[in-house]
């Protein structure tokens, strides 16, 4: 008989971070950044996992918190915390637990629920992700985004993002390198476009030469070879 997988808190935090990056098409929020167990201030909330999405489409952009629970007693105590009911991190909020441990009707208002089965697959049971899983209707998704959205502790979230950003080193040095890389990419793209246009022009001229001026074929073929070099 195969033993049932016993998920640890650390296991589910790792799964939660991966899930936060999952695209809408795969029943996720599509966060661009996701981390586990970071402080939101020196005495602030420490989410088990939090992700941030910023795509330029305001209704779906914001923060997503996942609180991991591996025991019933922990969940029952946790859901009574003040920031679970009012305030706190996350524009969208979920509990994640082993499959069946928490039921949707037990959730604080506006929270979602993610079950993790014995194979590590995440099954959305409530919240925006649950609406994605239940319906492929675009308008239903937009309604779910709005109905499950919370006002978040944006100062705490800013603290997280600034601290994470500070760990990458000199931000301005990175910014300059990125600008230089984009400039080089733009230069190379223009060069490729110019070469492609030259090739297309020579190919057109070669087709015309074959039809009416055979003596020009050798010269144009040589030119075309040079453009491809």
Helix and strand composition category: alpha/beta
The strand order across the widest sheet is 1-2-3-4-5-6
The count of domains is 2
Q: What is the arithmetic mean of pLDDT?
A: 88
Quickly describe the structure.
The chain is an alpha/beta fold and 229 residues long.
Task: Please tell me about this protein's structure.
The chain has 8 helices and 6 strands, in the order αβββααβββααααα. The protein is an alpha/beta fold and 229 residues long. It folds into 2 domains: 9-167, no CATH class; 172-228. A 6-stranded mixed β-sheet has the order 1-2-3-4-5-6. The longest helix is centred in the last third of the chain and has 42 residues, at 171-212. The mean pLDDT is 88. Residues 185-212 form a coiled coil. It comes from Halomonas citrativorans. This is Phage protein.
What's the arrangement of secondary structure elements?
Blueprint (H helix, E strand, L loop, with lengths): L8 H12 L12 E4 L12 E5 L8 E7 L3 H7 L3 H4 L6 E7 L13 E5 L5 E5 L1 H7 L3 H10 L6 H13 L4 H42 L4 H12 L1
Parallel strand pairs: 3-4, 4-5
Antiparallel strand pairs: 1-2, 2-3, 5-6
């Amino acid at each position: 008989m195969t033993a049932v997988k016993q998920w640890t808190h650390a296991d589910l935090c790792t799964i939660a971070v991966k899930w936060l990056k999952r695209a809408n098409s795969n029943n996720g929020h599509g966060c661009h950044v996701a981390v586990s167990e970071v402080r939101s201030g020196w005495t602030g909330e420490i989410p088990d996992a939090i992700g941030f999405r910023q795509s330029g489409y305001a209704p779906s952009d914001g923060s997503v918190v996942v609180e991991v629970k591996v025991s019933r007693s922990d969940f029952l105590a946790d859901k009574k915390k003040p920031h679970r009911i009012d305030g706190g991190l996350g524009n969208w909020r979920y509990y994640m637990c082993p499959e069946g441990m928490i039921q949707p009707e037990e959730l604080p208002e506006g929270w979602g629920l993610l079950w993790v089965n014995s194979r590590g697959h995440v099954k959305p049971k409530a919240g925006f992700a649950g609406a994605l899983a239940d319906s492929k209707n675009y308008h239903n998704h937009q309604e779910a985004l709005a109905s499950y959205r919370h006002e978040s502790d944006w100062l705490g979230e800013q603290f997280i993002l600034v601290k994470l950003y500070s760990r990458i080193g000199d931000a301005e040095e990175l910014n300059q390198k990125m600008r230089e890389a984009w400039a080089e990419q733009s230069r190379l793209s223009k060069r490729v476009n110019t070469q492609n246009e030259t090739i297309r022009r020579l190919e057109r001229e070669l087709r015309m030469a074959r039809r009416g001026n055979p003596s020009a074929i050798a010269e144009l073929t040589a030119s075309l070879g040079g453009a491809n070099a």
